Amino acid sequence: MVVALLLLLAVSVGALRLLRRAPPGWLNSAVVYRRAVLVGWSLAVVLLLSWMIPALGPLPFFWHAAGKMLGFALLLVAPLWVVPSRWLPLAAAGWVAVISFVGFSDLVYSRHFGNLVPVTALFGAGQTWAIRESIGALVRLRDLTLLLPVAAAVA
User: Fold this and answer.
1) How far apart are CA 148 and CA 154, in angstroms?
2) What is the rounded CA–CA span in Å between residue 99 and residue 83?
3) Which end of the chain is more exposed for a tag (fewer CB within 10 A), N or C?
4) How many CB atoms lie within 10 A of CB 73?
5) If we measure between CA atoms, which residue out of 54, 66, 39 comes closest to residue 4?
6) Would the pTM of this model clear 0.70, i.e. be above it?
7) Half-sphere exposure of 83 toward its Cβ, with a 13 Å CA cutoff?
8) For residues 70 and 100, which has the higher predicted lDDT (pLDDT)?
9) Could you report the per-residue pLDDT of 8-37, keeping only the tens digit for each?
């Protein structure tokens, strides 16, 4: 877990440094450079989240499925390539926040029910306020590390 957090910090700091730097001479477009850095950062964070979430709880995960995990992460960040340049930083941060929240929800749900959140359970999301004590009992302090990518996205 500590390794994943250090990697998250290194990836976020590296992306910030790359964004402040001028694009390399062989790349004529600063827009393409910025897009590549932000999409690459989003991909790295999604991969780190998919590595961190099973380490925190009883989620079903197979370590030999690294290729599928990479393909799924690429599929998740693919929409960022078509977002207009002006909105790309906000979209990348929002996308990472959504993926972090979904991972957090899956982790808490799997502690109680032993499975991932089914789509039909999303229709009962309005009842979340009524069961907040139960949710609070299922959340552990180390689960809050899943909110660190959201903080990195805001930076």
Assistant:
1) 10
2) 17
3) C
4) 20
5) 54
6) no
7) 20
8) 100
9) 788 888 888 888 888 877 777 888 888 888
